[in-house]
From TrEMBL:
EC code(s) of this entry: 2.7.1.2
Listed PANTHER family: BIFUNCTIONAL UDP-N-ACETYLGLUCOSAMINE 2-EPIMERASE_N-ACETYLMANNOSAMINE KINASE, ROK (REPRESSOR, ORF, KINASE) FAMILY
Alphabetical list of Pfam families matching this protein: ROK
Keywords from the named record: Kinase, Transferase
Domain of life, per lineage: Bacteria
Family (UniProt): Belongs to the ROK (NagC/XylR) family.
SUPFAM superfamilies associated with the record: Actin-like ATPase domain
Gene Ontology MF terms in the entry: glucokinase activity
Keyword Kinase carried by entry: yes
InterPro entries: ATPase_NBD, ROK
Source organism of the structure: Acidithrix ferrooxidans
Name listed for the protein in its UniProt record: Glucokinase
C-alpha cells in the first residue's frame, strides 16, 4: 500500500458509542467527516457502506484505514478481541473482507494506535521523543510512540484497559481491571449502584457543585485512571502522556483530578508532561493520514 502526497485517505474510527468516518489528505487535514451512533447499525458493513457512499461516492480515496477498539492481529489484518463492540461486528473486521466490500485497499489498526499516530504527527505529541496516548471513553485503550514510530508486535500492544489494578477482584469477571474501574462505563455503573439517576455529564456537574456522592464517585474514578497512567510510565519510561476520549475531553474537572492523582503516583525520577489530545475526537481519523507510511516503512 503506497501513498502519494496528494492522495486522499478514507478513515474509520469505530467505537462502542460512535461510528466515525472521515476523508483526509496526506497532511492530516480532515476534509469531511460523518458520525453514526454505533447502536443504530445492524453490522459494521452497514456503517462502512453508508458513510463511504456519503463521504467518497466516486472513490477518489483508494486507501481505507480502519481503527478498531480492541486487539488487532496485524499479520492477519483482523480484529481478534473487541469487547466494547457488538460481537457480530468482529468477524466483519477483517482487512480482506472490508477490501472486498468497498473495493479499496484496507489497513486495519487498533484505534488507540491510530490516535497515537495522529497525535504524534499532528497533535500534542509532535515535539515529543516518547509519548503514550491513552483514551478514556466507553472503554480504555493506550498506545506508545517513540520518535513518532508506533511500538507494536504482531498484535497491538498496551491493552491498558484490560490490565488489573485491584488484585482481589482480578478473577471476578474482570472486575479489577482498569476498564471496569476507570472508564466512562465504570462511571455510569458506579453512579447507578449509588442510586444516582444521572448521566456521566450530569454526574460531573454534580461533583463540581460539591454533591458528596457524586464527588466521591468521580474522585475514585479519576484516582484509578491516575494509577493506570503511573503504571504505563513505570513500564515504558515515557516523557509525555496525551489523554483523549469522551471522559477526558468533556472538561477540565476530571482531567485535573486525573493529573493530580498521576503526579502523586508517577516515578519520582521522571518528569512527565500530561496533556489533553489536541486533535480531540478526530485524533484517530487524522492519524489515518500517517498510518499507511507507518505500517509500510521498514522502521514503522
Amino acid at each position: 500500500m503506497n501513498q502519494s502526497n496528494d492522495e486522499l485517505i478514507l478513515g474509520a474510527d469505530i467505537g462502542g458509542t460512535h461510528f466515525r468516518m472521515g476523508l483526509c489528505d496526506a497532511s492530516g487535514k480532515l476534509l469531511a467527516h460523518q458520525v453514526l451512533p454505533t447502536a443504530t447499525l445492524a453490522s459494521a458493513q452497514e456503517g462502512f457502506t453508508k458513510l463511504a457512499d456519503i463521504l467518497d461516492p466516486t472513490k477518489k480515496a483508494k486507501s481505507f484505514v480502519v481503527g478498531v477498539p480492541g486487539v488487532v492481529d496485524y499479520r492477519e489484518s483482523k480484529a481478534i478481541f473487541a469487547p466494547n463492540l457488538p460481537q457480530n461486528f468482529i468477524p466483519e473486521l477483517s482487512g480482506e473482507k472490508i477490501a472486498k466490500l468497498l473495493g479499496r485497499e484496507v489497513l486495519l489498526v487498533n484505534d488507540a494506535d491510530l490516535a497515537a499516530i495522529g497525535e504524534a504527527h499532528f497533535g500534542a505529541g509532535r515535539t515529543k521523543e516518547s509519548m503514550s496516548y491513552v483514551t478514556i471513553s466507553t472503554g480504555i485503550g493506550a498506545a506508545v510512540t517513540v520518535d513518532k514510530k508506533l511500538i507494536r508486535t504482531r498484535y497491538s500492544i498496551a491493552e491498558l484497559g484490560h490490565s488489573f489494578i485491584d488484585a482481589s477482584d482480578a478473577l471476578a469477571n474482570g472486575r479489577g481491571s482498569v476498564e471496569y474501574l476507570a472508564s466512562g462505563t465504570a462511571l455510569a455503573r458506579t453512579a447507578k449502584e449509588a442510586g444516582l439517576s444521572l448521566t456521566n455529564q450530569q454526574l460531573v456537574v454534580a461533583a463540581q457543585a460539591g454533591e458528596p456522592n457524586a464527588l466521591l464517585i468521580v474522585k475514585e474514578m479519576a484516582h484509578n485512571v491516575g494509577v493506570a497512567l503511573a503504571n504505563m510510565v513505570h513500564l515504558f519510561s515515557i516523557e509525555s502522556l496525551v489523554l483523549g476520549g469522551g471522559v477526558i475531553l468533556s472538561g477540565d474537572f476530571i482531567f485535573n483530578l486525573v493529573e493530580e492523582s498521576f503526579q502523586e503516583l508517577k516515578p519520582s525520577y521522571l518528569e512527565v508532561e500530561v496533556a489533553k489530545a489536541e486533535l480531540g475526537d478526530d485524533a484517530a481519523l487524522r492519524g489515518c493520514a500517517a498510518a499507511i507510511a507507518a505500517f509500510t516503512s521498514p522502521s514503522g
